[in-house]
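Problem: given the chain below (369 residues), write out its structure.
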Amino acid sequence: MHNHQRIFIISLIITLISVFLGLTLDLWISRSAIIDTEHEVRVLYHTLLMQIPIICLCVGLIFRFFLPSKTLNILGIFSLNATLAAIHTVILTEALTFSPISVIAITLMAKIFILKTISLIFLFGSYVLFGFLTIVEFHDIEALGIPFYFFLMMLFLWLLYLGLDHYKKEQNQFVHERRQARQLSKITLQSMLIRSHNMVLERRSNVDELTTLYNRRFFEKSYNDELNGMNRSCRSLAVLLIDIDHFKAVNDSFGHERGDQCICQIATALNQCVTRKDDVVARYGGEEFIVLLPNTDIAGALSLANYINQYIRRLNLQHPFMDRVTVSIGGAVASNKITDKKAFIKKADENLYRVKHNGRDGACILRYS
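Solution.
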């Protein structure tokens, strides 16, 4: 889009230059090394005032009101470049050299269009070609002197320099981009490692090392989130406190290693009993566990508690003075907004002690109000 606008502007500038040269033809024609006869003067006059302006205006209008393809874009640059070469050639002095001003002008055009190496070769080559054809058209080719061929060589060297300069810049840009890509890849890898490490740390901070259940910290967070959700949606919430009966006797009789095995087996049993996605099973204390049951009423909580009691009995875990290891379960269920979160847990704890007072290995689930 930008090149289209530039071609339009340059075509207007060349048109103005051509008309100006045509109108002032008498002032400079005597200095031209190309134009010798009256016929050549008339042809040049007609070319400057008619042909070149028409060509440039057509090119400019096409690129002003349409969006030509890349091929037309190249042809537009080619046409303007050929016109510049023809204009410059006819105003050459008798030295028959392409002046440094011409090189500067064509280099500026190359920079304006941000051309690559192959485009620079095309631009300079077409410029030299059309300048040479203009000289052949108006002048005897045998009259061209050494300065003209010398300057053609200088122009070729300048073109070679521009090409090498562009290649060097492209190479430096490539190296810079590769270096940036490596640095970005390294940073991305480090970021992924840090994120992975943080996830591991976060998981470790939320998981009990012995049982691999969630720890009390994670339960507190989940509990607070559930309270907020419950208070907004007015759904019921249940919590179960589970304590291993006479666990101190297991430690004292069989040792702490056996006691830890017992805790792990109870934790595995709870994980197998509580299967809903939103439920949370956590280790709450030494031999105490807690289960958070969103959207659960008294009947559902009591049914789960009885199932846990039966499941653990079937494990037949050895106990020093009882038939097997059992658990006591106390729970509370709320169906209204909970204003005191500690009181809700305390209600479940009170029900747990009711079970222990009544002989253990049972469950007591009451409504919290």
